[in-house]
Design brief:
Elements (H helix, E strand, L loop, with lengths): L4 E8 L4 E6 L15 E7 L4 H19 L1 E3 L5 E6 L9 E9 L3
Antiparallel strand pairs: 1-2, 1-5, 3-6, 4-6, 5-6
Length: 103
């Protein structure tokens, strides 16, 4: 299918983060519902842990602070990967749930 992607959903617990991995299909028995949200989407071409961690920090402490939005903590972060990750430098996305900052 043209939407042949892998979704990683990160739900924050009290002192842990749950990572759920799956694909968007209607025939799975196990499903989680992601609440509707506005999203800030960022595209990367590296999976280097140090770079990705720094990128997340820049989103949360840089871009988000100056965007007029805040992170919607009622909705989990999502990462979207291609189903084929064999080649280095594949394109993937970070989705941060956002809502307008109150004035």
């Amino acid at each position: 299918s043209k939407n042949n992607k892998i979704y990683a959903v990160y739900q924050n617990g009290n002192d842990s983060i749950d990572c759920l991995i799956g694909a968007k299909k209607d025939d799975y028995k196990d499903k989680i519902e992601i609440p509707k949200s506005n999203w800030a989407k960022f595209t990367l071409n590296t999976t280097d842990d140090e770079y990705v961690n720094e990128f997340y920090k820049n989103i949360l402490n840089g871009w988000l602070m100056s965007s007029g939005y805040i992170k919607n903590n009622d909705v989990p972060n999502i990462e979207v990967f291609p189903s084929n990750m064999e080649k280095d430098g594949f394109e993937w996305e970070i989705w941060i749930p956002i809502r307008k900052a109150e004035k």
